[in-house]
Automatic annotation (TrEMBL):
Keyword Nucleotide-binding: yes
Cell membrane recorded as keyword: yes
Upper lineage: Bacteria, Bacillati, Actinomycetota, Actinomycetes, Micromonosporales
Stored PANTHER family: CARBOHYDRATE TRANSPORT ATP-BINDING PROTEIN MG119-RELATED, D-ALLOSE IMPORT ATP-BINDING PROTEIN ALSA-RELATED
Domain ABC transporter: 8-243, 255-497
Record's keyword terms, sorted: ATP-binding, Cell membrane, Membrane, Nucleotide-binding, Repeat, Sugar transport, Translocase, Transport
Coiled coil location: none
Short name of one Pfam family: ABC_tran
Species the sequence originates in: Dactylosporangium cerinum
Gene Ontology MF term list: ATP binding
Highest taxon, organism lineage: Bacteria
Stored InterPro entries: AAA+_ATPase, ABC_carbohydrate_import_ATPase, ABC_transporter-like_ATP-bd, ABC_transporter-like_CS, P-loop_NTPase
Protein name, as recorded: Sugar ABC transporter ATP-binding protein
Amino acid sequence: MTHPAPAIAVSNVSKSFGGIAAVAGVSFTVADGEVVALVGENGAGKSTIKNIIGGTLRPDSGHVRFAGAPAIEGAGRTRHTGVATVHQETSLFPDLSVAENILIDRLRAPGSATVRPGHLRRAAAPVLQRVGAGFGPETIVRDLPAGQRQLVEIAKALAAEPRAIVFDEPTASLNLVERELIMRIVEQLRADGVAVLYISHYLEEVARLSQRVVVMRDGQVVADRPTGELDRGALETLMVGRELARGYPVAPPPRSAKTLSVRELGDDVRVSGVSFDIAEGEIFGLAGLMGSGRTEVARAIFGLAGAVGRVEVGGRPLRRGNVRACVAAGMAFVTEDRRHEGLFLDRPIRESLSLVDLDSVCRAGWLDGRGERRLTDDLADKVRLVARGGLGADGGSLSGGNQQKVVLGKWLVRRPRLIILDEPTRGIDVGAKAEIYRLLVELARAGSSILLISSEMEEVLGLSHRVGVMHDGRLAGVLDRSQATQENVIRLATGGAS
Ligand SMILES: Nc1ncnc2c1ncn2[C@@H]1O[C@H](COP(=O)(O)OP(=O)(O)OP(=O)(O)O)[C@@H](O)[C@H]1O
């Protein structure tokens, strides 16, 4: 019996950057109608492989074949026919319509004539239907919530009718309902015979969707096994090379003094009438569906978005809209958009790490090189930073997850009085997550107050003393740890009574 060639065959692929191997001798296949999960720690080499399969990066040696055929070499870029990629960061044009975004590659094709809007709409409708979109082709992308933009991203990939499709963490920061939708699309693609390579840090998704798991560590494949043979613990151990502690670390009960007091907070647009307190040493989770106003609450506390209402830190009214005053009051804000707001891509990693704590690395106004080295080495260690080129390499050379660890880590050691974290573990691997949870609990134990915003319900429920649930711009209820179950949170988040 002859076997058909696999839809994707990666053979002995190696790639180095500046003499440092990102991936070395990687081989695996994905067959038609198969979902293969690609997992590994931050910096293991997953994105490098994705980019080589997608044709945006050329391997130093080895090759990728699609259904037995090599890629078509063109000037500068390799064209890989039959494979599409759904990226983590959205690549959509916000001011164009859904249909224009979906068909943009064809609109830009040389020799393409002017396209009539009616034609565009008709061409986009079937793929929108295939992803179960509840919006029309003429909707402007900017008006869609993030979860639905991800559907447009997938529809765009499907428009080319690919035989193989690569998903890069498609559910990061989506809520449970939106995640379910994406997973059903993947299941349907598989049933339709499409080959799927699924990159994810969410091991429950890996267990549900994939038939096979390829585990990468330090640029190499360390396991390629049927998913059914690996339980969660075994998979984690393969990924991080050690056994991870189960469950969440427990913070001691909060103290009685209030750190933060928020009254009738609003942003004049989406959020209004939000009131709550956070005590010293308390972890307060903020849950809610995407678009419910969680991020806006955080921004309004910091005075960033035309905020109204009263905010007190340590019993003193906060001078609003003045970020410097907030920082002076001991507040720290780690936003969702960490890569643009906290990391120098073209400066040594060491500088990004030491910047918030300059006082401790400066002696009489001079930068103390040894002090800086000690501080940054310690920090890098604490967040399990994988910087294969050392801390002297530029921030831009780090993998996505490791860039996030830098920005998060530098705030965590500063022991702020109040730290607001928006999606702190997005894109971060299981091992580093465990470290970050430990650091958060340590901060709380030392008396810091923490406002934790996360779409990962398990994380919010596992770490928080209390959980506030947002619905439609209002705080629908606050649940104590004993009442904070997934069902109760979902009920409040979807507009049900507490
Ligand atoms: N342009 C580059 N210049 C220098 N080094 C790079 C570059 N791109 C990747 N690397 C290095 O290659 C290694 C693999 O990175 P890659 O982005 O493939 O990891 P990853 O598994 O996708 O990680 P993450 O889960 O954080 O996204 C890392 O050590 C990274 O620092």
